[in-house]
Amino acid sequence: MSSRPTPVLFFVLAFFGVLFQIAAAAPAVALERRDVYSPPVLYPHTGTVWYKGQTHNVTWDVSSPPVNITDKTGLITLRKSGIPTPLILADGFDILLGRVEVKVPWVIEGSDYSVVLFGDSGNWSEDFTIEQ
Length: 132
Fold this sequence. Notes:
Elements: H1 7-25, E1 41-43, E2 49-51, E3 55-60, E4 73-80, E5 83-94, E6 99-103, E7 110-118, E8 122-124, E9 128-131
Parallel strand pairs: 2-9
Antiparallel strand pairs: 1-3, 3-6, 4-5, 4-7, 7-8, 7-9
């Protein structure tokens, strides 16, 4: 039996050699510096009571946003007992507005609801109550 390299081995080594040279020659792309923005939700808060069908303003603090926000498009969802629900209360708004109007959905009554504000990060309110 011969211990000479086969033509297939030469081909594989040449292929990967060329592949690594191409990868090494590719210019490094400089990434733009971006900041994560997670503004605290101010309303609703503990002690707030919402009634099904009402309209309320969800508000958050926009007093100190970073210069480069990764995603300025906002989304507000509802969660119950710390568990996210599929209910979207508002979406497509500018996170720098500081408030958005939402309609209270028809859900089971409870005092363990919170809203989740997504921009480029998720931030949730204190627990509040939803009643009939």
